[in-house]
Amino acid sequence: MRKSNTSVAWKRKDLLDLESLSREEIELILATAESFKEVSRREIKKVPALRGKTLVNLFYEPSTRTRVSFEVAAKRLSLDVINITSESSSVKKGETLIDTAKNIEALKVDIIVVRHNYSGAAAILSRNLHVSVVNAGDGWHEHPTQALLDMFTLKEKLGTISGLHVSIVGDIAHSRVARSNIWGLVKLGAKVTVCAPKILIPAAIEQMGVSVTESLDEALRDADAVNVLRMQFERDSQDAFPKQLEYFKNYGITEERLAKLSKNIIVMHPGPINRGIEMSSAVADGTHSVILEQVTNGIAVRMAVLFLVAQANEYISKTQPHAAGSSKQPGERKIAG
Amino acid sequence: MRKSNTSVAWKRKDLLDLESLSREEIELILATAESFKEVSRREIKKVPALRGKTLVNLFYEPSTRTRVSFEVAAKRLSLDVINITSESSSVKKGETLIDTAKNIEALKVDIIVVRHNYSGAAAILSRNLHVSVVNAGDGWHEHPTQALLDMFTLKEKLGTISGLHVSIVGDIAHSRVARSNIWGLVKLGAKVTVCAPKILIPAAIEQMGVSVTESLDEALRDADAVNVLRMQFERDSQDAFPKQLEYFKNYGITEERLAKLSKNIIVMHPGPINRGIEMSSAVADGTHSVILEQVTNGIAVRMAVLFLVAQANEYISKTQPHAAGSSKQPGERKIAG
Amino acid sequence: MRKSNTSVAWKRKDLLDLESLSREEIELILATAESFKEVSRREIKKVPALRGKTLVNLFYEPSTRTRVSFEVAAKRLSLDVINITSESSSVKKGETLIDTAKNIEALKVDIIVVRHNYSGAAAILSRNLHVSVVNAGDGWHEHPTQALLDMFTLKEKLGTISGLHVSIVGDIAHSRVARSNIWGLVKLGAKVTVCAPKILIPAAIEQMGVSVTESLDEALRDADAVNVLRMQFERDSQDAFPKQLEYFKNYGITEERLAKLSKNIIVMHPGPINRGIEMSSAVADGTHSVILEQVTNGIAVRMAVLFLVAQANEYISKTQPHAAGSSKQPGERKIAG
Lengths: 337, 337, 337
Description:
3 copies of one chain form a homotrimer. Chain A has helices at 23-37, 64-76, 97-106, 121-128, 144-158, 176-187, 216-221, 240-251, 255-259, 281-284, 291-319, and strands at residues 54-59, 80-85, 111-116, 132-138, 165-169, 191-195, 211-213, 225-228, 266-268. In chain A, the strands form 2 sheets. Chain A has a 5-stranded parallel beta sheet with strand order 7-6-5-8-9. In chain A, strands 2-1-3-4 form a 4-stranded parallel beta sheet, sandwiched between helices. Chain A contains 11 helices and 9 strands. The longest helix of chain A has 29 residues, at 291-319. The two termini of chain A are 37 Å apart. The interface between A and C is medium-sized, with 27 and 29 residues.
């Protein structure tokens, strides 16, 4: 059931980013996820694939949503799950990230899923550990499983990624979701437009192979899908409300805007949605929205990722028991903050 | 083993309250709990009944006691359990309760156990979700599994509920435990007296079918059991101590009071007890007290509830795959805040 | 596989300390741990030994490290695990430790692992509960599983404990790790030296059978191993930095100091390390250090302890169903705060 017809085999012990993955590797994850999606529809939604192995959720930023998605995915694979959050962890006692992670590795666990506000945190763990490392979001760098579930949903809805036009709207500059989506979509042959007020578009973003516009109508005009990023207005609470109104006026997705389009566009959002800021409630709950399907697909995609890295690492540790973690992963060192 | 002789079958995907349940439905839960009680006495205290299904504890109010009871009950049914507490949840990010719950549902979990300070929170989830919803306490409204375990304990000790005289002592006005007990006990044919200083008795409480008294001695006089509610003096810390002394003098259960009674009364408490406020330590630990047995019975009762709603929901989703959650539950809309 | 050749059988329902254990009992734990160590090397790192039983981690002090180690150990034995931390617990509602623990026992769980800042907390639970109690650190009193994993590591590295010279360096006065190590090592025939500035050495420590020195060089001179305690400078943040520098100068383990020794000394630390305070990074990560092996061995040792107490308690409850917890444990009452 978990056999895939793709000719490439998965060889990485970690999933750190989409930047360093090949098109074939991304397609292998998506194909593996497809076979796992069926498990969640069964009466007994569980397979013994990774029974007797242990996953640690090591979360330095609070994120119920992502933590719970990984926890459910892991339990469906029969993994044992240990949650460690920064509030309760040894971080308080001044221990370094690497010391914490090495201590976790010494417990002979199999996978560490890490979320950290430092761009590159997952790569640092990867280089220092033999255990599998899965990046659940590092700073502004990447959030690869979010992009993979976005792509899985696109493919499920539209049959393909190649040739699609996907617009990403919102705070591109500070979004790891945007970065991972851009790497993945471009590799798989989609046309990507990013759309935001100028101040939220990073310099030289065109070098990633995307088009840029400040106009939402332009971004939507012939897009097959729009991925709407979460805005973080809560940080400057003083003038948050007028800014939110202004943002919604210029960049909020509304039914009026969607009605003007010639295509039947798909609306995505990584959640949690700010209703009335990034999009109207009518859009969030309407027929264009696939937001809850993204959440459902997150389970299948994360099951696939956990399964692939665990299998690869078992193979690696049998054949090269003393190899260092990072040496097996060409391209890993290219990761930028 | 989990077959019951009761003629009624359980058809609800949710347990929201006792107000909308029939006498037969309550009796079915109690009979099912009886067969589950035996599981906790085995060497391997676990049955595969709900293996491969997932329960989410969604707690917006802290409650180790209730959360842990549901968690143990769930694991004894082989459910996978995910804990989400408000401290760590997306609530902080301003997401609505419904959005949070719909996201959890999209993970294809099977049961959400919800505790929330808003009366009606569980009913809102029920109307919006296909997943099973179990109310673990909503505002001042209801706490149905607490009342069910209280009734289970009464029946175990005294053989029946019908015809018993049960007094409930304490802050009736703000107690979901009192409300659920009143609905359940009256339906099963018990005589119920509520007892408190006038200010803690809600207007028109007699309409629920109970007697009212301000005198503890009167409430105890011919009662078979007294259910003593927790007092929440910690909220007004300024003058908490004199108030506590005064309360204990007038409403505290003491061995002296119990010794005066002609019947061998049962003393219950939902916990945690304030020793020396609601009752003396001698009573809490004495022969009248069944407080720890209530805790034990909570496991069996919650196993029964989880089992029944999960079974019913599986049947519903097979036979009416597109039905909305609430339409299957007559009476549900009657729930008052 | 879990059979041991040791002639003594384990009869205690609890593990509270090493003070009251015999040499044979300690050796039985270490021998049992040896057979469990192999489990963590398997592809499926799990045995059904305690399936259907439940362990509660009841932690009144934050300790990710110890909590996670017990959680992993428990899951490898197929125990269900419930975590209760003081932040979320009924403690806030003013409940006593005994009431909290009796409520947990009433859930029909099998083992309570307790960490508490009160010396004697585990012994109090043991006397009041039939459920097994494992001390995960109580005040300044004892931390028996830490000492057992230290001894397991010593034996693994050096083949024996008897005849070894082990020095313990750091805040002896306030260290439950030191106390448990001293009891265990002396019972097993090791020579123990404690080393610290005078103010950190408790009065009359020699009565425990150890030598005392203020000189680190003297403590290291002919030691086979040095166990370096964590310093808690964070509590007096005002002048923490100069104190740390001073401490490192006098008591920090450096490669220079180790190079002067004639023996190949083993360096241990219960973690988390303060690099540059208790030892240099070069030592922590160097060839003398067995710090991460200690973490790995913690799993095997805790599996052994959980297995032994659960087995003994099952036997006790079958043969003496109404016996009180403490009466079965000679020596238990000797435990000092």
